[in-house]
Amino acid sequence: MRRLAAALALLALAPAAAAERDMPAGDVPAMREEAAEAGIAHAYRGPWEYFVGGGAAALDCNGDRMPDLFVAGGKAPARLYVNRGRAGGPLRFAETDTGLAARDLERVLGAYPLDIDSDGHPDLVLLRLGENLILRGGPDCRFTKANRRFAFDGGRAWTTAFAAAWEKDGAFPTLAFGNYVDRQAPGAPWGTCHDNALHRPAAGAAPDYGTALALAPGHCALSMLFTDWNRSGLPALRVTNDRHYYRGGEEQLWHVEPDRPPRLFTRADGWQRLTIWGMGIAEGDIDGDGYPEYALTSMGDTKLQRLDEEAEEDRPVYADIAYARGATAHRPYRGDDLKPSTGWHAEFADFNNDGLFDLFIAKGNVEKMEDFAAFDPDNLLIGQWDGGFAEAGDLAGIDRDTRGRGAVVDDFNRDGRLDLLVVNREAPVSLFRNMGAASADGPRQGGNFVAVELAQDGANRNAVGALVSLRWGARTLNRTVQVGGGHASGRLGFLHFGIGTAERATIRVKWPDGEWSAPYRVFANNFVHLARGAADVRYWYPPE
Amino acid sequence: MRAPAAALALALAAPAAAEPVAEPWAERVLLERVDPAAVAGRLDAAALAALRATGERLFVGRFTEADGVGRPFATQAIVPTARRRAPENAFFRSAGLDANACSGCHNQPATGGAGDFVANVFVSEGFESADFDSLDPQFSNERGTNHLFGAGLIELLAREMTAELHAVRRAALAEARAGGAPVTAALAAKGVGFGAVTAHPDGMLDLGAVEGVDDDLVIRPFSQKGVMTSLRQFTVNALNHHHGIQADERFGPRWTGTRDHDGDGVDDEIGAGEISALVAWQAGLAPPAVETPADAAWRAAARRGDALFDGLGCQACHRRALPLDSLEFADPGPLDMAGTLRAGETPHGAVYDLALMAWAERLPRDADGRILVPLFGDLKRHVIADRQVATLGNELLAQRFVERNVFMTAELWGVAETAPYGHRNDLTTLDAVIRAHGGAARAARDAYVAAAETDRRALIAFLRTLVIAP
Fold this sequence. Notes:
Chain A is mainly β.
């Protein structure tokens, strides 16, 4: 609580701080750290191989629509925490047994949830140092290893990235794995990046990932994401890569067309060479034009890419607008250390419900890299009405002396405000409860919100790949259901929309097969369940 | 010890810190700011009177450019919406600006009252086609001006009814979760039915059987459509729409990033304290009353009409009275959303105890001591037109998710003095508007039409006793 009070005091002193940087207009969320109180005492630890990774997954593993948490532990076992919280209350979690052997939960770098077999129980894909695992979800948060059942060869690579998408008419998702350094290769680690892999399901009634395609060359991927960058309905696979280890590498975008092998976008396609210490990808349509922008974390400048004027339908030409928008986040915003930052997980989300995307970036020195900032607090860049961003990490109270890696942004207590889990290297995780908008008089309510859960029958029941387009006033907010991106961290569940002062909104859904829904009318401050083909939405109310 | 109202008014009103004190003859209405801290808590009679005096001055004042009149770069929309180009004329009878003062329209038979046809407003969402120079109903819904007498009681009823509906919802969800089986619960508040909800064990709620209220089960008692939650919300809306005066609590930096969202060169046009004053004044307006005619024949006819009101079925929707538990009007209220000041957003919440108003003593009470608010309404929306009787279904645009032929039951208190009638204010007599009732009111309307001429005249005689008594 002291930290929250300190953040509020900072906010009160905002005019003095404004001399040094642009202060955010609008609300700053007051984030209260309460991991220990909430029942999560867990750290991501391990030697060199665990300098990267450190992810977490939010999923509903027991059917109560309260997000549960699976957190990687590195050398230590990963843990699963069931959400015991109540609507609007303090965050509460309880560790639970997954039903798996301890050795299967060790050497985990990250995790992504998705319902591969569409049985209504979310599954988990574990990124590991060594064999990757697919955990098949069952009732009451019990999981079983499904590598054999799904004919999935988890390999022996050092896996650091993952993305999934249902390709056209697919009964099961295509899985993409991004690998890091091939430690067995001569000369490792320099210039020895492992190939990445694409696992397409074979035709059949059950998932069969018996054959895999190499995504070569690999350039030490640290995040990947299927993204419909040109609104073609055909997601491409964007990969961000760590230049620290590759030689001749760059950022990548793969054509992933049905029944064809993946192929890279090339210079001839307009793809421009970009070499960064790519750590994480965030997608967000920050200007509401239907075309996503991307934040790419790195060492030093964060990139914020927007389609350039030279871009065409099949030419992914991007301009970096991070500097113009105040989103470079290139060095610590607090303290005397002026060395460059090291960015990891990135995520666009509306923490203050004003209807504008904010950008969270987990920060932290790799280990003891002296050319980079040692004290490197996480960023909370608050979206501004002029399209820019203004730093508020310290004002929000998330500027801790930790080495952040992966993260999950979700509404853990279903109060309509987004909370935050940050996985820290060699330190306990941080779990921040969003108390509301910081003010000198204490936290107060923020803007209105709508949370949307999609459902469809048959395959892909969570509608991964669907676009939810929400209209409030004269503005349109677009969110896509995605599995991938960030840094080794993913979530499955309600999509969150801040809608400012609007009391109502209209939602349309572009389902994964491209079919648009009729408009649905919803009232603000509700959790909305939208089933494909239903005449009306239903509202969901969290347990009180 | 009570300070005189005038002294209190001086104490609570202070010029904005950075502004010079306006000269008393300045051509503006917003001469000084009302400090919200000075009007916080439970106001005693003097403080409430002082605040209401300020509110009345703002209600009748003709705002000027110095106050912030004009919104060249903002539309009339309730959600702050910028526009690229300023309209050719700042004032424009259809799309607005269309008034200089609140009382420019709310003035029949007294300040705070209803408006003549000439005071109709043109309701448009203001997102696309914000500017329209046509009265064609494809661009806007033309509406008459409602009176505000008794508005505080109306809002209090709506708050209590909403709390009842939310309690039903909460109980149904808890029972379904505990029992593991769906629970269907009837929605009723103060004896008015609003359909039903079905709660499922997983927390899902089916809303298909909800009637006459929004899916969030919030009774929104204001506007002819019943789509505005509170006097505060409506005041903020109307100041922008009709005058281009933008309230900080919705159009200020918090929600727009700027102190001058409408681009008229005036920052921070109206603050939370002034809005509170306007709310307090409106909330404290006396409720209309039933007048006993001096004329003996009228008295007799009215007595007969009083009975016929029930016999013809009018009371099915025009409930004579609804019971109210408390006269404590909290401002901000409990149901507003972001953009209208909420209780948790300010340490300066106030309570206006309407029991302090002189008129409160004359309100009837039931056996349980509850105030019987004689509104002649049910605060519920109904379909009011059908294929044969379609006059009141003359709009083309739904408003805030409410279909074009659905309106909130008009409260009949004060109806004798608020002609003309109908939501477009284009029906000159009570007889005409009764005959225009279709849809859910069709049976009562048919009964009226089929009644004997003397009975119809008796009903009108009764309705003509429902007067505004400021």
